Amino acid sequence: MQKKQRAVKSDERKAWERDQRINRIIDIVEDLFYTGGYEATTVDEIARAAGYTKRSIYLYFRDREDLFLAVVRRGQLLFKSVLEQALAGPDRGKEPLVVRLGRAFYQYSLDHPKYITLLMTYESKLHRYVPDTQEVDDGSYRSQCQRLSSEYGRIVTSAIEEDIGKGRIRTVLSARQLMLLLWGQVFGVLQIILMRKASFREVYQTTPEKLFEEYLSMVVKSFR
Predict the structure, then answer these.
(1) Is 92 a residue whose pLDDT tops 70?
(2) What are the two backbone dihedrals, phi and then psi, of residue 180, each rounded to the nearest 5 degrees?
(3) Left if phi > 0, otherwise alpha if psi is -120 to 50, otherwise beta: which for 174?
């Protein structure tokens, strides 16, 4: 009995140590992909920064894409949580839920510029846009990222459906179609703000916050 308990504890310890090594590598990779970009960052560079051989890196990750997706997954989990928290507050009357989500998205970009940049890279280069029924969940980082992207897409779609049902939004589009349009708009606005943030006030005589709120006001007016 004692031998069995020791074996279980030993296995748990090994699993914990493995998770610690994986998380340490992901911590390092976050900064490398953010500063160097997905295309330019190599596994050799990652191995040197982590203090491992390439062979050791490949014990935990299949390739560079796997490493990148591990970081993206971390950012996606946080982003999904931010959206859920935004919807957890009290009802604000006529204000559409998607406005709350827009503000949450904006705040996420301020609090986590590293993740929002990497999420944009993922969406443009690696995400597969297929019907939910065609998604394959094999436990890989790719399938986990695919699933999480679909999940926060459904969060936004459900909020739009509720807004339409309560008369906060008037549209001839389906909730899913409107989600796609708003998603593209918000991503575009945030991308411009992040790229030009350093001299934003000087060049445009306003703040990123005020500009984004003005964008949200325009969106709300278009719903009426």
Answers:
(1) no
(2) -65, -45
(3) beta
For residue 16, CA distances in Å to 13, 73, 108 come to 5, 20, 30
Helix, strand, coil abundance in the chain, percent, nearest 5: 80, 0, 20
Checking if the pLDDT of 144 tops 90, the result is: yes
**Token pair of 124 as six digits:** 């443009």
Q: Which domain holds residue 29?
A: 1-61
Q: Angle 208-223/97-111 helices, nearest 10 degrees?
A: 160
b/e burial code for range 3-37 (CB count within 10 A of at least 16 → b): eeeeeeeeeeeeeeeeeeeeeebbebbbebbbeee
Same domain, 84 and 165: yes
Alpha carbon distance, N-terminus to C-terminus of the chain: 70
Q: Which residue has the tokens 């890196």?
A: 57
Output phi, psi for 72, to 5 deg.
Answer: -60, -45
pLDDT, tens only, 97-119: 999 999 999 999 999 999 999 99
**Are residue 44 and residue 122 in the same domain, yes or no?**
no
Tokens of 103: 């503000």
| pTM for the whole structure | 0.88
In this structure, are 78 and 39 located in the same domain? no
Specify the number of domains making up the chain: 2
